[in-house]
Amino acid sequence: NKAAPVAVEDWSGSFEWDSRADDTRFNIFGISSFRANQREIINAVMSGRDVLVIMAAGGGKSLCYQLPAILRDGVALVVSPLLSLIQDQVMGLTALGIPAYMLTSTTSKEDEKYIYKALDKGEGALTILYVTPEKISKSKRFMSKLEKCHHGGRLSLVAIDEAHCCSQWGHDFRPDYKNLGILKIQFPNIPMIALTATATYKVQTDLMEMLHIPKCVKFVSTVNRPNLFYKVLDKSSVGKVVIDEIADYIRGSCSNNESGIVYCFSRKECEQVNELLSLVAKELRDRGISADYYHADMDVVARGKVHLRWSKNKLQVIVGTVAFGMGINKPDVRFVIHHSLSKSMETYYQESGRAGRDGLPSECILYFRPGDIPRQSSMVFYENCGLQNLYDIVRYCQSNRKCRRSAFFQHFGEAMQDCNGMCDNCAYGTEIKEVDATYHAKIIASLLHDMQSNDQRATMLQLVDRFRAKIKASGASNTPASDLKKEEVEQLIILLILDRVLKEEFQHTAYATNAYVTLGPLWKQALQGKKAVKLEITIGQRGNKGGS
Ligand code: ADP
Hints:
By secondary structure, the chain is α/β, with parallel strands linked by helices. The protein has helices spanning 18-28, 38-46, 61-71, 83-95, 109-121, 133-138, 140-151, 181-186, 201-210, 242-253, 272-286, 300-311, 345-352, 373-380, 386-398, 404-411, 424-427, 438-453, 460-473, 486-498, 523-527, and strands at 51-54, 75-79, 100-103, 128-131, 155-160, 192-196, 217-220, 228-234, 259-263, 291-294, 317-320, 333-338, 362-368, 432-436, 502-508, 513-519, 534-538. Strands 3-4-2-5-6-1-7 form a seven-stranded parallel beta sheet, sandwiched between helices. The chain has a six-stranded parallel beta sheet with strand order 8-13-12-9-11-10. Helix 1 packs across helix 3 (61-71) and helix 2 packs parallel to helix 3 (61-71). The structure holds adenosine-5'-diphosphate. Adenosine-5'-diphosphate binds next to helix 3. One of its GO terms (molecular function) is four-way junction helicase activity. Its EC number is 5.6.2.4. It is found in: Nucleus. Belongs to the helicase family. RecQ subfamily.
């Protein structure tokens, strides 16, 4: 992994707009000083340069385009993917007295008229205009008005929020973002600022190409969030109830006025997710934790109430899907607990990153069991690199020795920084037993080979059962393979998938996509016992006390 260059050009000098920028920052936004890179970014945009900003969630990206939008004459166009984010932003700006509007499916006819007139003829105050990407790709009318605005010298800048959506390699590719390149082609002399919280080196290169901003100034702030303590907890041990553990953790580590989020797995098309959320919230309440749930189908009033109570720390825990938290800016979230696996390192970084935006120690806990993987993989396999991305976070979960933070640095192509004991592996490590599983792998490969020769296939669970049945039937109680517990066999199968001895395959039915385990590219080596396989089995439960 190549390290991404960090702001190669120096934009910290003095500029004619310095004092106006400071006045606007303080008098309009009520912000007492700029954070890292903000002033430099503003300087580059004000100088007419194209800019790429990579800044952690909560770092203050919005100011980087909103402030130049105010300083420059004319209309700033902002493309943003989510209606709810746009609404929040427009509301916030309006409250500050800035003429901000949005052109989306929810815009009234009256506002639309106002906006079009402003674009067309420069009538009426319009400083910042938010649109969703579909407007650019699908509305000829809008584009022709925008052209007029530009022609009249009234287009001040173009901002692309959540710019990683441009890239197929990113974690949230949106087809409509692909067409945003048209903006630079039509308005080559207007500065474009693309912003995102997360972009690997590859995604950066890709989106610069798609947006036609090859010469942009890059500002890469570190992905490191030094105040976050990362840990992975095992939820595979038989008889262990995760809810009990989560409740114990919250009671043990947090005072009553400290709050956080518990994320549950969401399968988009699955209605049951709402039931699951309410059930988990109830189970936490039964254990004396003040908890409630939050989901998209709740009516606006109920949702608002839950959110408000939580924001004021009257409610300790919100149970939600990973969609909860997007655009929500609570600075003192003390813990983010994932009840099950995220789909990639990038999404996990973003979701867990909702903790500790105020810079105080906070914890990010992920509950992992191999059995959760097929459920996730059957959802992501059709995405570009979906499986690769999923397997990356599985590696993160299964690594018992390596600094958790280092996985983020590596993933985002950044040089290693000190963890300062702020992850489970660095703080207290894990007691593990290393098992030579070469023989076990051989049995699994031969089992699958036999099955596939008979046109049979197996889910992970079926394979686990067959493996154990075979060991039992052989009557051998002292073979090396007889001592693996069910979860350990699951863990081994996952390891073999990561090592490409096995692979996952998927089949659609009318109701679901089923995941199967089949032989992978390196199966022959395993069958011949030539593939050395080392399984790390956790003996000691990882400590429950973290850095906070
Ligand atoms: P991002 O888009 O990077 O996630 P936002 O632009 O929403 O972050 O900013 C996060 C929060 O930080 C907002 O409440 C914003 O007002 C605040 N903020 C931005 N810049 C500064 C600053 N220089 N000083 C203090 N607070 C700031």
